[in-house]
């Protein structure tokens, strides 16, 4: 591309003409010391907590420690050019990020600046990263489902819109995979997604972006990335920035899903910032307010009622509720859920999906531990058909686990026990699902119905997955009307049951697997 | 630097309370200013830090620099500072004392930087302006700084009103660098 010189001078001329010089009064102070991304500033006695401070060269910082004679601030971005004696100006604003539909499909950093080489983001609105969560009056109970497309999640630990469901497990247990599958399944549902990557390798983030692109799921997703090479301050504020972007959709009466991957690393980053600010360390060297760090973040994920939406949009949107569903991720060390941060987040969230490395290594993927995983509010939001059919699965698995442990010792088993064991093995097998292949409600219902009614009982265990796959293909080509009907009504009645039964009989008679 | 102020504040406040009680604010203020200057001298620092020199001799040395003979309380104050090894914070203590003094007298110190020497009329109009703004008496500290090119820069505590040409150029420069 050739640059037209007159064009540039015209731009500059226009800029000079339009430029309005700000001569208003401002507060300023001087940098006393800079180290490890923390600046101690003398002066600025009127600084606000969390206020944006302007350092030389358009570098910004955030005031975190307000002391009698100094302000401790974290510098967002590079700090090598800042030195003792530099002037720091107050901006009078709390840290803000751009929000809106313009960010969808983009990869941004914790300040909302694009890092995907696709040009500037022309967002019209911005929002402070720290906001108070909606109060009691504005809220509405959770009663709509978020379909993750994973049988084991949707059947056993259903998630509702506005719920906070924790994904917890050791490293390499498929935590991110569950979250990414949930994002992919929101395609064409109108649910906007935000994926916040905290302290991850840049290559992992790039891979997530590519996978979302491959499955055509990037266009409804915002990626907020604070990689391991970004400063601790950027990693600390990334979830709040992502949350502000999600809140925008919630407040205009839409539904959004946000994944914080992962909050353990954010707590580490916050610990680093706090220790450098010389705040006293507590348990595991975390500062005293590490609980509030996560509780105030997750409390902002909520479902708000029609009145609140109408008030927030000045009456432009009426009769719609808004929601922000959160899937925080916590990485445990060697399965230790009683460490400080995991216990905190477990107690804050409305349930958890517990992933185990033993199950993962045994080939059960997603490696969800059905006994320890719970959803405290999702049951009210579950689709009728899955609720009806999924209940049996949970029970069968629970009975199976008890019997399986017991049957290790017994050589002779009666027929009823044997049958239950067989059923359990098949259900366990059925709960396996490949990555990036979310199922529709109808497909899920068909599989669950087949398991409940014993259609799998005469299928060899290692054929269960291929049986299911062929069943879905068969139903898609021969009984599409049934699948469409279920996906539309999401209801379970005798008519649906009899149609599913005839489909399965048809498949057993004519299908191959 | 900010820590020094934190350590010095109680001393400055205590000194000011005594000065009010005894009604010797101006003498104390002058003496503190002189001491601040003296203590920052390298040689004096060395003497004060020398363990072989007794505290009494140190006080005598410092007293020699003072214009008027200090009262008993001021002597005690110096001894206390030497006891607590806070004598080197004299500069901060003095400035805290002065801030308290101007608050007490309802006077605000306005630092005015200008590119050229201001005329008496100009200073008078500035005083009028700030009198209205802050509802208090104004003391103008004027300095000339040719780097401003034109215009003035006013500083009251942390608040800065920058009306210089240098500031405008800087703002334009930042805008043009996209």
What's the quick description here?
In chain A, 39% of the residues lie in helices and 20% in strands. With 513 residues, chain A is α/β, with parallel strands linked by helices. In chain A, strands 8, 12, 13, 14, 15, 16, 17, 18 and 19 form a 9-stranded mixed sheet that branches. In chain A, strands 1-2-5-4-3-6 form a 6-stranded antiparallel β-barrel.
Strand-helix topology:
The complex is a heterodimer of chains A (513) and B (178).
Chain A: H1 5-18, E1 26-35, E2 38-43, E3 51-55, E4 59-66, E5 70-76, E6 87-94, E7 96-99, E8 107-108, E9 125-128, E10 145-146, H2 151-156, E11 159-160, E12 166-169, H3 175-184, E13 192-198, H4 202-214, E14 221-226, H5 232-251, E15 255-261, H6 263-276, H7 290-298, E16 303-304, H8 306-312, E17 322-331, H9 340-348, E18 351-355, H10 357-361, E19 374-375, H11 384-407, H12 415-430, H13 441-452, H14 464-478, H15 480-489, H16 494-510
Helix pairs in contact in A: 5-6, 7-9, 11-12, 11-13, 13-15
Chain B: H1 2-22, H2 25-39, H3 42-49, H4 55-65, H5 72-83, H6 90-104, E1 107-114, H7 120-134, E2 137-144, E3 152-156, E4 159-162, H8 165-176
Q: What descriptive keywords fit this protein?
A:
heterodimer; A: 513 residues; alpha/beta; nine-stranded mixed beta sheet; six-stranded antiparallel barrel; 16 helices; B: 178 residues; alpha+beta; four-stranded mixed beta sheet; elongated
């Amino acid at each position: 591309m050739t640059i037209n010189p007159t064009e540039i001078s015209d731009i500059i001329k226009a800029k000079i003409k339009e430029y309005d010089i700000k001569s208003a009064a401002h507060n300023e102070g001087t940098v006393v010391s800079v180290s490890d991304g923390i600046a101690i500033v003398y002066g600025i006695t009127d600084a606000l907590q969390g206020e944006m401070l302007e350092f030389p060269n358009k570098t910004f910082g955030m005031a975190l420690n307000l002391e009698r004679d100094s302000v401790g601030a974290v510098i967002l971005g590079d700090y090598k050019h800042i030195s003792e004696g530099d002037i720091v100006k107050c901006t009078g604003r709390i840290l803000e990020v751009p929000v809106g539909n313009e960010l969808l499909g983009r990869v941004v950093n914790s300040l909302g600046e694009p890092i995907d080489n696709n040009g500037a983001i022309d967002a019209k609105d911005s929002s402070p990263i720290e906001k108070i969560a909606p109060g009691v009056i504005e809220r509405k109970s959770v009663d709509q489902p978020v379909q993750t497309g994973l049988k084991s999640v949707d059947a056993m630990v259903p998630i509702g819109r506005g719920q906070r469901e924790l994904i917890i497990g050791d490293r390499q247990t498929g935590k991110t995979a569950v979250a990414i599958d949930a994002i992919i399944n929101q395609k064409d549902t109108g649910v906007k997604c935000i994926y916040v990557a905290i302290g991850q390798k840049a290559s992992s983030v790039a891979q997530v972006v590519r996978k979302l692109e491959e499955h055509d799921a990037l266009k409804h997703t915002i990626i907020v990335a604070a990689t391991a090479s970004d400063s601790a301050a950027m990693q600390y504020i990334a979830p709040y920035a992502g949350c502000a972007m999600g809140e925008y959709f919630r407040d205009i009466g839409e539904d959004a899903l946000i994944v914080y991957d992962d909050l353990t690393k954010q707590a580490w980053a916050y610990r680093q910032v706090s220790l450098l600010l010389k705040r006293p360390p507590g348990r595991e060297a975390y500062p005293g307010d590490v609980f509030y760090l996560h509780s105030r973040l997750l409390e902002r994920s909520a479902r708000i009622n029609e009145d609140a939406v109408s008030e927030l949009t000045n009456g432009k949107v009426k009769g719609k509720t808004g929601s922000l569903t959160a899937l925080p991720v916590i990485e445990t060390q060697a399965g230790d859920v009683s460490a400080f941060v995991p216990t905190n987040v477990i107690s804050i969230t409305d349930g958890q999906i517990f992933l185990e490395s033993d199950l993962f290594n045994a080939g059960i993927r997603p490696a969800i531990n059905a006994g320890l995983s719970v959803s405290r509010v999702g049951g009210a939001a579950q689709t009728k058909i899955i609720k009806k059919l999924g209940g049996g699965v949970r029970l069968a698995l629970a009975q199976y686990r008890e019997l399986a442990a017991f049957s290790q010792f017994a050589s002779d088993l009666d027929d009823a026990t044997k049958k239950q064991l067989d059923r359990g093995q098949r259900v366990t097998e059925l709960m396996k699902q490949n990555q990036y292949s979310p199922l529709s409600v109808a497909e899920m219902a068909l599989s669950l119905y087949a398991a409940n009614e014993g259609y799998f009982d005469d299928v060899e265990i290692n054929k269960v997955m291929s049986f299911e796959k062929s069943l879905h293909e068969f139903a898609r080509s021969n009984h599409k009307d049934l699948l469409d009907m279920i996906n539309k009504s999401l209801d379970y009645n005798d008519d649906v049951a009899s149609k599913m039964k005839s489909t399965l009989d048809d498949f057993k008679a004519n299908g191959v697997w | 630097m900010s820590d020094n102020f934190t350590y010095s504040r109680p001393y400055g406040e205590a000194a000011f309370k005594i000065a009010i009680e005894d009604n010797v604010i101006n003498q104390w203020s002058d003496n503190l200013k002189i001491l601040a200057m003296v203590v920052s001298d390298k040689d004096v620092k060395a003497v004060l830090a020398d363990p072989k020199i007794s505290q009494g001799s140190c006080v005598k040395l410092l007293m020699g620099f003072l214009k008027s003979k200090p009262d008993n309380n001021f002597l005690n104050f110096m001894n206390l500072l030497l006891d607590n090894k806070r004598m080197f914070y004299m500069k901060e203590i003095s400035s805290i004392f002065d801030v308290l003094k101007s608050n007490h007298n309802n006077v605000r110190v306005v630092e005015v930087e200008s590119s050229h020497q201001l005329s008496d009329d100009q200073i008078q109009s500035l005083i009028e302006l700030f009198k209205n703004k802050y509802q208090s008496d104004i003391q103008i500290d004027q300095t000339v700084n040719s780097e401003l090119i034109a215009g003035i820069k006013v500083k009251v505590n942390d608040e800065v009103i920058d009306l210089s040409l240098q500031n405008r150029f800087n703002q334009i420069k930042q805008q043009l660098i996209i």
